[in-house]
Amino acid sequence: MRRIIGLLVVLFFGCNPLKKDTPIKIPLIENWQFKGLDTLDWKTATVPGNIFTDLLSHKIIEDPFTKNNEEKVQWVSNKSWEYRTSFQLSEDILKKQHIELNFNGLDTYAKIYLNDSLLGETNNAFRTFNFDVKKLIKKENQLKIYLLNNREIEKKLEEKNLYYLPEGKRVYTRKAQFQYGWDWGPQLNTSGIWKKVSLVAWNEMRFKNIFIRQEKLTELKANLIAEITIESDLDAVAEIKINVATKEILQKIEIKKGIHTYKVPIEIENPTLWWTHNLGNPYLYQFDFRLIYDKKIKDEKSIKKGIRTIKLITKKDTIGESFYFELNGKPVYMKGANYIPQNSFQNKVSNQHYEKLLSDVAESNMNILRVWGGGIYENDIFYDLCDEKGILVWQDFMFACAMYPGDIEFLANVKEEAIQQVKRLRNHTSIALWCGNNENSEGWKRWGWQNNRTEKEKKNIWNDYLAVFDSILPKVVAEFSETDYWETSPKYGRGNPKYKTEGDAHDWWVWHDGYPFEHFENNVPRFMSEFGFQSFPSFETLKYINQTDTISLKTTAVKSHQKHIRGFQLIDTYMARDYNIPTNEEDYVYVSQLVQAKGIVMGIEAHRRTKPYNMGSLYWQLNDCWPAISWSSIDYFGNWKALQYKAKNAFENVLISSVIQNDTVTTYVINDSFQRLQGNLKLKVIDFYGKEIWSDSKEIKVLENSSKQFYEFPLEKVDIENSVFITEFNDQKSYFYFSKSKDLNLPKGKVQQKITKIKNGFSITLKSDVLQKDVFLFTDKKGHFSDNFFDLMPNETKVIEFKSDIDSLDDLKIKTLNTLN
Prior knowledge:
The chain is α+β, with helices and mostly antiparallel strands. The protein is 21% helix and 34% strand.
C-alpha cells in the first residue's frame, strides 16, 4: 500500500503541467476623448465608435435618423477630428520581448502618434494596421489619432487622376461606399476608430495565422492540412498540439526565425458533413491548436469549421451557361436576400442584433445571404452565426456601382485589403463565393459612363477595372482560400439578352422601368441575385421618423427618408394596378407592404418553378441601415414586413405554386429536399363563404430536388372574382386567387379573436365566418407575431403566437383587405 501511494505521489507531482506564456492582449477602450481640430473642447468618446455617435452622445448634434436631421449634420464630415487616450502598463508587460499596437479598423485617413512619435498613417477602413511599439512604450503612455477630412483628400486624389471617374470622389477612398448616400440610405460619412484597438505583448514565438485546408473528402475520411504560420525570434524545435473530435495530434516542428508556414496533416474518420439548415445539420468541428516550446504554451487558438465542399458550377449547355452551387456534391437551390450593413453607425450593431437578424433568416427558410459590395466586410460574429445556423454567404468585395482608380498606390492598397479579408474569413464554412464587385461592369456598359470619352480614356479605365477584378482579386482568392471567385454581379446587364441564359442576373425592369410584376413570370434567368420592390416600414418606424404618435406620410421627415427620386410615385403606380388605393394613411402603409410582397413572391415562385434552369432567387433587400422607406423585408427596428412573412412561405423546401397560363390554371410542386415525396395532391375551389364549388385529388410522386407540373384545369370552370383555389400536399397548403385583389368581391365580416397568456407572450386564436384576405395583426407593444399578413379561410381556426415580454396585450388590432375593398 505504501508503495502504491508513493507511485501516485510521483505521478501527481512528476506530471508538471505546462506553464502558459501566451500573448497578452490589452484592449484600449478606456479614457478616450475627442475634439475637432478647430472645433470643440475635449469630450469623452466611445471606442469602437465614430464621430457622429460621439457628438450625439454629448447632444452636440440631433439624431440624424429622425425628422430631416440628416441634412443638419453634414458639417461633421467636412472636418478633421482628433482622438486621444492615455494608459498605463505594468512592469510584467513592459518586460515582454514584443509589444505591438493593433488597429482593427480606422476610418479612414489617419495619423497615429504614440508618446508624440509618429507611428504611421492609414488609408483604408477595411484593413488592420499593426505597429511594433516596443521601443516607444513605457509605463505612462498617450496615444493620439488624427482623423483627416477625407473629402479634402478625395478632392486632391481626383485632381491627380488623368480622367474623371463615374460616381464621383468616393471611389478614391477605401471605406463603406453606402455612407456617401444611396437610394435606400443616408449620406452620413463617418470618421473614427470604428473597430477595436489593442496592445499585444508576447515572447519568442506566436501563431500568426492558421488555415485549415481541405485536401480530400470521402464518406470514410476527411484529409485536412493545417497551414500554420508562426512568427519566431529564433530557430528552435517546438511542438504543435491539435485536438479535434476526441483526437489528439502532436507534431514536432523545426521552426525557423522569422515568419514561416508549416503544414500539419489532420485526418477525421467518418466525417459528419456540414449542410445548410434546410437540408441537414450545420455541424461544426472544433479544432484547438497549441504552440509548445521550452515546456511552455506559447500560443493557442480555437477554430470552428465544418467539413463540406461548395462549388460554383458554370458549364456551357444548350441554353447558355449554368450558374448554381453544389454543396457536398449536390446541386442546391439558393433562397435568400441581399444584406446591407445593419446601421449607418456600425458601433450601434450589437451581438444581439446579429443573433436576431440571422435567426430571422434561418426561420424564414433562407439558406444564403449576399453581402453586398457597397457596405462592409462584416464582423466575425456575422460569419460565426452563419456557420452555426447553416446559412451560406455570397461575399462581395467592397466595390459597388462605380469605376475605380488604377494607380500603383491604389492597387497595392486594394491587394493588401483583399489578402487580409480573405485570410480572415477563409476558415468560415459559410463562405460560398467571393464576388469582385456589384454592378461596376454593368454600369460601364449600360449606364452612359463611356459617353464623351476618347477611345484611349475608355481603354485606360477598363484596363484599371481589369487590373482589380480580373487580376488582383481572383489571384488573391485562389492563393489564399479554397473558395470560387466571380468577377462581377450581374454577369450581364438586363439590356443584354444573355442576362436570362448565362450567369447571375439583376432584374430591375420591375421597379426602375415600371414593368408589371407579371414580367417576372416570363423572364427567368439562370440565377437571380437581385430584384426588388419598395414598401413603407412598420408603424413604429414611421412614428420614429416623424417623432409623433400618429401616422403621417406627407411630412418633410418622411420625404427625407425616401431616397429614391421616384419611390413614392412607383409605389402608388404599382398599387393602383392590383389594389384599391386607400385614402387612410395607415391603410396605405399596410397595402404598400402587400404590393411589395405580391411582386417579390411572384418572382420567387416563377424562379422556383423553372428549376433546375434557375437555381437561385435572392431579392433586394433583407434589412435597413436606418429608418426608411426602402426595399427591405425587415425594417430598421427588426419588424417583419409582409414580404418577410410571405417569403418565408415561398422559401419552404416543398412549395405548391399555381399560375395562370393561357387561360389555364397550372399547379406545380417544387421539392428542394433530397428525399422523394409521395402523397395525395388535394385540390378544391371554394367561395368566400366556405362553400365548395369543385374538388379533385391525385396521387403524385415528387422527385428529390425537382420542380414539376402536376395539374391543370381551364379558368372558365371558376367564378374568378368570388372564389379561391386551395391545394394541399404533405402538410403544405397553398391559396391561389384568379383575379387581382382589387377585383375580388371580398365579403364583410368580423374576425373573432381570443387572447391567452402563455409563457413567452400570448396565444391568439382567430376565426371568421367568411374568408379574410391578408389578415394583419398589429399592436403598439414590442414583440413578434409567428405569422401575419395571412389569409384566414372561412370557418377555420388559426392560432398565432405573439412573442413578447409584456404582461398584457390589450391593444391588438386587425386589418384585412375585406375592410378596405
